[in-house]
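Slide 14.
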Amino acid sequence: MRILLVSSNLHSQFPACFPNAVGALAAYLKRERYDVRTFHMRRKRDIKRLPGLIREARPDLVGVSAVTCEADIIPQVARMAKEWNPGVPVLVGGIHGIVVPQRVLATEGVDGVCVGEGELAFHDYLRLMESSGDVTAAKNFMFRRNGGIVRNDSLEFIQNLDSLPFLDRSVTDYQQVLNANNGAANLIFSRGCPWSCAFCCNKDLRKTGRGEYARLMTPERAIEELAFVSGSYRFKYIVFRDDTFTWNKDWALKLLDLYAGRFTYPYDIFTRADCLDDEIVDRLKRTGCRHVFLGLDSGNDHIRNEILHKEQPADAILRAAEMLKARGIRPVISNIVGLPHETPRKFKDTIEINKRIYEDMVVFSACNGACPKIWVFEPWPGTDLFKLCEKNGWINDDNGGHRVYRESVLRLPGFAPDEIEREYRNFRYQVYKDHFPVQALLFRLYDTRLMQSVFENIPLEVIGKVREFVLSMMNSAVLQKR
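Slide 15: predicted structure.
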């Protein structure tokens, strides 16, 4: 049976991202001996190639994987597939289908929506299809049936992640992805998250299956996958891209011990301030960690804990940053502007905490770009904050085609969209101007619309070179503190 899986990051800030969901599904289906072809679109012109690819592949099934900002590919892929063969099933997976399945199912040409983890669900559908059974009985799917909509039973979350094959990195040119990311390999060894932050869809995703939601592959299996990637591709740097790499301390310590015995790549991790202590930070330092991403999100205590449900005091984040800096590990603080109930005055709390953290260092890397990180709040469907914004009528439905994480779609009572964008573009300048005025001016240039347009339009392989150039300027600027 021939299967075509389509994905994209046409609207993403990160055109060099690897489509992990498609990589996982393709690997699983190939192991079950299905003929799988994939097409991942990075530039808008790529979609013009899809009709010819469909004719060439002659698929028995077309799958579309999409997050919300990529959802406009769903009707386009469905239309092209049905123009080639009105009878070919078109199934949609990915977070967008999970959080708004009825909206996706109402799309002309879409036959079914996967509303949970995809590997077992798609395999179940294909077995029913091969046996001429009722495909609309496939678990983890939603279908139209007899004029209505049926949501089938949920499958159990896959508990043993070691039982899954490694991601199929041939679904796109993975070496090109590595090169565009300055030789950084992003690896994920977990699924799910123990927390339920209000801006994240994990709370809703936890309801899409049965059993434990936050899961880890064994440290031994993680090292196996890293060894496979290391032996197959050229890279210089690793980003452990798990949402919270150190939430299970024993797991993290064991993985790092195994890692130190085999690899010398420098690496970054993502975690929370309350998942760090002296022991884990010492181990991170000894094994080559250079940057740790920490989500402050808002420096205002009320916004961070009562609105975002982060459950983190500001002092804990400041202590974690100092703990890292004392060992020569650079904290990369992630921040959001334009949050519900935020005002320019409240956002100044975010600026002030970042100024304290970065008063003695400038952080910019060819791999990670500019730091501290700043994003414009995006109300994603399926999150508590989306429901709050919808209830209050703050979402501007007419602002289609906005730049995700760069322009606000909200009409907040005390924070106008143009003010939000101004704070977004001046944020790093404000953080650094008192202690690093030269670098602050470079950040102001880096964060202009013009510079970001350059990143959107230059070839992927050039992005890294631009970042390397900016990094060299940062390092050579006067008044650099050590």
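Speaker note: Residues 14 and 476 are 27 Å apart (CA to CA).
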